[in-house]
Predict the 3D structure of the following.
Amino acid sequence: MPDEDGYFGETVAARYDESSADMFTPDAVDPAVDLLAGLAGEGRALEFGVGTGRLALPLADRGVPVHGIDMSRAMTSRLSAKPGGDAVGVTIGDFATTRVPGLFAVAYLVFNTINNLTTQDAQVDCFRNAAAHLEPGGHFVIEVGVPELRLLPPGQTAVPFRVGPTGWAFDTYDTATQAMSSNYVTLVDGRPEYAYYPFRYVWPSELDLMARLAGLRLRDRWEGWTRKPFTHESRGHVSVWEKPAV
């Protein structure tokens, strides 16, 4: 891990919003905030991996009290500096294990961030941590892609997803361990720069089992935030697990 901020240190934080600009558009943000605000109701929301506040800030602007947990001081400093940033509480720590005071109506983990936990044990701990923060009847929401192993022919471990005149990007997969990585080669002033981010991919059914171990049960699963049905061809999903009210 590069430094105390993990893989999301100052270099990444400085360009994060720009590099992920398509995820900051109203089409990407509004449906997610609508769903999360509905689940929060009159209660509080807890974001695991709050980052620069892409969803936390508009959710707080809806009147939902939001608290975030994140390892990266570099990322959360951008959140705090934005308009309305003082309305979002932030705790620095590993969201798989870090506890904050009080209970929440909804906890959420978006944009494939569950995969940043690179062991199954850490992912299980994350579900347990979410459940411990939820009030009875509360919900845990995850947005994550479906592993794209169908794109791998025999003998191949890499899947390119960006090829252009200024750089290339590809994912690598190890189907024995569920380890994967995203790799970026970018030309800067004619010289290549390389960035590497490790992940652990996880299947929807595996997440459901993690939820059961934490005392949660699946309530809904859609292809995305607009609540289209999840199907065999879906490349991602938004899943909602519920903590029993009793």
